[in-house]
Fold this protein.
Amino acid sequence: MMQEFLQNWIYFIASLSLVGVGLYIVLTKENIFRIIVGLNIIESGTNLFMVAIAWHPNAVMPIYTATNHLMVNGKVVTADPLPQSLVLTAIVIGLGTTALALAIGIKIFEKYGTLDVRKIKEAEK
Amino acid sequence: MRSDTPELFKKIFALSAVAILIVGFFLAFIEMPKGWSVNVNGRVSRLYILKNVRTATKLLDSGSFFAKGMKPLRTDVAYTPIEFKKTANLEDGAANVVTSIVVDYRGFDTLGEVTVLFLAVSGVMMLLFGKPRKEKKKKTEPSLIMYVGTRIAFSIIFLFGIYIFVHGHLTPGGGFPGGTVIASGILGLFLGKRGYNPNHAGLKSFEALSGIAFVIIGLIGLFSVNSFLANFLPTGIVGNLYSAGFVALIYIAIGMKVGAELAAMVDTMITDTEEEWS
């Protein structure tokens, strides 16, 4: 019972809780770098969700090797490779956006001398 | 939210936002169809299958699950199982199916992805551009062991990166991980010696030439097979190094481009610049 429940739901619960933790961080933290960390946690949650959609306990990885046959008796027995390739794209774009966000954070620190969003707002007045 | 709002209220607000997200997610699950009478293969997601692992496994073992409602794409040729190192002249020919999707079927998408990475790196360079700081901060000089060790490690890491992106169509990996591995080796060189200065013109021209090579490979497909980024080379035998046509060529171009790009980004981020704010 417990094993079946875990097999069914563990990746979805994990991905959803990652998105929840990231959203909580983004909403409550004041430090800009911590907000960027929260965004990255949301991103890993969505990536895990997309990979988990394509996954099945009995499926093999979608790579042909000497012992890995993706088709058995004419039936496909692999995990779906399409969400995996989309996640590959999403990871690279996440890297680019994180680097850009960190660069903007560095510039904000140089101008205001702080990373606290509230103090930056007060300094603007 | 104002700055004088009590901390507790803010936390409760954030927690309720998270709770709404979670409840909405599970409500979306409940709305999905139940029972095995619907054709699963017609649905977009496999979530529905995962709800019932035992039944799905049983159906998978008896062979009636994936075949349900599925028609073979071609009926004019008989079904022949694909054997590693034996089957030749497949449609794509890459042993790694994810690679064949990323580079071959969705090659145009990958071109856009490379463009997004290029734009992000140029944005970082534009933001962090400036004159090097004159009064340098006091930092400890790395030791001789660090200096020599990073150089030895760089050669091994460089070779490993090249291995990853050349074998992208056979093993997990490909151009993006390979390029990142190479950039991490160059990061080691930056850590090993203070003020390490790579050849900037070389990095830039390397990146530009590999980007142009990607587009040229696509244009060759356009002129020879009448489709942009079409596979114009013979696909060979599954599992050989010289197989899958142009997949390996494109992954070599992507790997060199990503490696040079990320190395330039590391260089920009590690150089201490100053800027005068008005």
Q: What stands out?
A: Chain B touches chain A through 62 residues (CB under 8 Å). The beta strands of chain B are 131-132, 273-274. DSSP finds nine helices and two strands in chain B.
